[in-house]
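Example for tutorial group B:
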């Protein structure tokens, strides 16, 4: 039998630790899995003892606090193989390792802003990539998923075998089992023109409007987000940014650098610049574009997808999440469209392909209490409601409160189909320590 850690064991707390520190979880048993066989044993143990099961890789996307049950950790499962443009990665692999391995083949994965994020959790949530407007969602490139379901069976889901499970996992995440390995196509990218432009507090409104207008007509080769980031007034923050509510425009452009320069010229001219890191870079340095903090912390985040960003909405974002906001809040606006709106041959579930932008809000729990943050985020998203088209589960972090996230994220038809798949593979709802999809009670 594989190792099992219980509360009080010397390694229990270390094994539980991850990037998110503000969501308490106290499983009865932690199973540090080193292989698919360990995952099978853990799931069979949970079935024999009628216990719920959860999975944890890096801890970036922890959503739901819980006590009891079995937690399987996957960070020891780090195998990567690349063949014929397809990567096969084990459940504990982070994007940074795939980026390095793919570069040796002149290829890149559809990774996101932060290389420390886990490949499986990211991809099962859709996967909004730095190359997303050109190549679509990471989940669209998946060709096979190996998963241990609640009966302790290791299954292989592809468009042709276990096709309902293949659909449900890509968006339904850990409701259906523990993924042990993923296979997905890589794309022919080795470099890009990218980095960020940074502006100070007094330019926030002008930059928000300039980015929104600029984003109206861009080639698919351009993927861009705008961050509004309150920088602490501390010596660790470099001088021009210290104490500023920085507007950070992130750029990842797949055309040549000269054309990139031409495209971003209106942004550079929008307001006085505090920083400008735009340059031609190898894809292996793509983590520098957003330059997100690498250290674990406690945070709460929510989001909405929207059909547009009109002036009233920009005013609401500034009012509820700008410098005068009651709780310091990082806002990220992502431009969608392009290939992110295309329907692939075998789509997953839970990604809003009609939306034009996402609006994400994130606050650090030390800066304010969870309840205070929840109230502040609530006001922001209430104000955006008239133009909201949905929400993405992958950008919900920390206590989301209501417990009905599934109903907010999936359409009624998709939720019904997910519930039917759930009834087929997990009728006892053992995988429920998450944003849960309950099994359909009337399924055949
Ligand atoms: C700093 C930061 C940057 C981010 N940038 C992006 C980005 O650019 N684009 C984007 O799309 N997302 C991004 N995300 C969101 C991220 O993709 C999700 O939080 C994702 O769930 C993280 O997966 P993980 O495995 O790293 O985290 P974990 O917290 O370990 O896992 C999160 C969830 O993933 C699922 N999961 C993980 N492993 C398995 C498994 N083996 N089997 C079944 N389910 C599993 C489960 O639902 C689990 O609760 C970012 C998050 C952070 C904190």
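The residue assignment follows.
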């Amino acid at each position: 039998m594989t190792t099992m850690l219980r509360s009080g064991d010397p390694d229990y707390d270390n094994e539980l630790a991850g990037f998110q520190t503000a969501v308490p979880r106290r499983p009865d048993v932690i199973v540090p899995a080193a292989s698919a066989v360990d995952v099978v044993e853990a799931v069979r143990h949970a079935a024999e003892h009628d216990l719920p099961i959860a999975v944890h890789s890096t801890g970036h996307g922890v959503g739901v606090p819980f006590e009891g049950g079995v937690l399987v950790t996957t960070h020891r499962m780090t195998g990567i193989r690349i063949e014929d443009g397809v990567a096969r990665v084990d459940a504990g692999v982070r994007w940074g390792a795939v980026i390095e391995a793919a570069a040796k083949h002149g290829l890149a994965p559809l990774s996101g802003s932060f290389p420390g994020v886990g490949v499986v959790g990211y991809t099962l949530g859709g996967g909004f990539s730095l190359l997303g407007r050109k190549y679509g969602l990471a989940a669209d490139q998946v060709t096979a998923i190996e998963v241990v379901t609640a009966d302790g069976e290791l299954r292989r889901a592809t468009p042709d075998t276990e096709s309902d499970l293949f659909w449900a996992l890509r968006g339904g995440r850990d409701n259906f089992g523990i993924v042990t390995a993923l296979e997905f196509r890589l794309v022919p990218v080795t470099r890009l023109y990218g980095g960020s432009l940074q502006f100070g507090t007094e330019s926030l409104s002008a930059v928000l409007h300039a980015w929104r207008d600029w984003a109206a007509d861009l080639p698919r080769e351009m993927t861009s987000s705008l961050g509004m980031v309150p920088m602490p007034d501390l010596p660790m923050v470099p001088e021009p940014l210290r104490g500023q509510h920085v507007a950070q425009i992130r750029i990842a452009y797949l055309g040549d650098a000269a054309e990139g320069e031409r495209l971003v010229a209106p942004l550079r001219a929008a307001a006085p610049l505090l920083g400008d890191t735009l340059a031609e870079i190898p894809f292996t340095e793509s983590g520098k574009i957003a330059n997100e903090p690498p250290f674990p912390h406690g945070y709460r985040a929510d989001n909405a997808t929207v059909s547009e960003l009109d002036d009233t909405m920009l005013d609401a974002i500034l009012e509820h999440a700008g410098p005068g906001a009651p709780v310091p809040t990082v806002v990220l606006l992502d431009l969608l469209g392009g290939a992110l709106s295309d329907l692939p041959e075998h789509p997953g579930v839970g990604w809003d392909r009609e939306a034009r932008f996402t609006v994400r809000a994130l606050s650090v729990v030390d800066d304010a209490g969870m309840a205070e943050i929840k109230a502040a985020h609530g006001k922001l998203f209430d104000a955006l409601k008239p133009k909201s088209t949905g929400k993405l589960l992958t950008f919900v972090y920390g206590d989301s409160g209501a417990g009905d996230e599934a109903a907010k994220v999936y359409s009624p038809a998709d939720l019904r189909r997910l519930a039917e798949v759930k009834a087929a593979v997990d009728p006892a709802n053992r995988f429920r320590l998450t944003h849960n999809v309950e099994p359909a009670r009337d399924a055949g």
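Residues 191-395 form a domain with the Vanillyl-alcohol Oxidase; Chain A, domain 3 fold (CATH 3.40.462.20). Compare this with the pattern of hydrophobic and polar residues in the output above.
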